[in-house]
Amino acid sequence: MERPRPPRDGLDVVPDDRFRPVDVMTRTVRAEDVDPLASAFAAWPKPRELFETYARRVAGGTLDMVVASVDSHLAGYLLIEPQSSYPPFAEAGIPEIADFNVLRSWQRAGIGTALMDEAERRVAKISDVVGLGVGLYSDYGTAQRMYVRRGYLPDGAGVVIAGAPVPPGTEILLNDDPELMFTKQLR
Predict the structure, then answer these.
(1) Among 17, 53, 63, 128, fewest CB within 10 Å belongs to which?
(2) pTM, whole model, 2 decimals?
(3) CA–CA distances in Å: residue 167 to residues 89, 157, 173
(4) How does pLDDT run across 106-152, given as a tens digit for each residue?
């Protein structure tokens, strides 16, 4: 009988369950998704009214919203704004990926990648380029790295707040408002 071998520098340790391969399903949001989304993201805080607005806009054709689930459990979502509110994107006709969120319990399980793959596939049907904005502080670090790995490049405007570049020397509050805008060539 062979004896079990001891781990070599932790390399034989069984991985954390959340890193297991998962089968992610992505689809367009439906009206019946509002309550599950509001419950899942209540602590972020994202009120029910926000998801109601998103669902109405999707039904009206002014927004595309992709949700991801694993084994029928909601895992995340993102928006695709066909008409960006960021002036350089709007002027160039560049759709924008916005409000991209994956529940903490599903992070690092491929949910974000599945959502981004689907968003880029959808945008490629209407545009050669896609844009997005990302916050500047450490809570956005994972997203910043993912966007660069996926080929997104800063648009060159520097830090923007509410769609306007921040002039040099301006003191700003480092919250969710300041961001860098990125674009990616899709085809």
Answers:
(1) 17
(2) 0.84
(3) 19, 10, 14
(4) 888 899 999 999 999 999 999 999 999 999 999 999 999 999 999 99
Say if residue 10's pLDDT is above 60.
no
H-helix segments, the chain: 34-40, 48-60, 87-92, 111-124, 141-149
* Rounded distance between C-alpha atoms, residue 70 and residue 22, angstroms: 7
Quote the tokens at residue 167: 């002039």
Six token digits for residue 155: 């648009």
The residues with which 131 forms a beta bridge, in sequence order, are 96, 183
Structure tokens at 81: 């704004």
Q: How many CA atoms lie within 13 A of 159 on its CB side?
A: 16
Mapping DSSP to helix (H, G, I), strand (E, B) and coil, where does residue 100 land? strand
Using CA atoms, how far apart are residues 8 and 102, in angstroms rounded to an integer? Answer: 33
Contact 74, 36 (CB under 8 A): yes
Residues near 7 by Cβ (< 8 Å), separated by ≥ 6? 13
Residue range 33-78, pLDDT digits in tens: 999 999 999 998 899 999 999 999 999 999 999 999 998 889 999 9
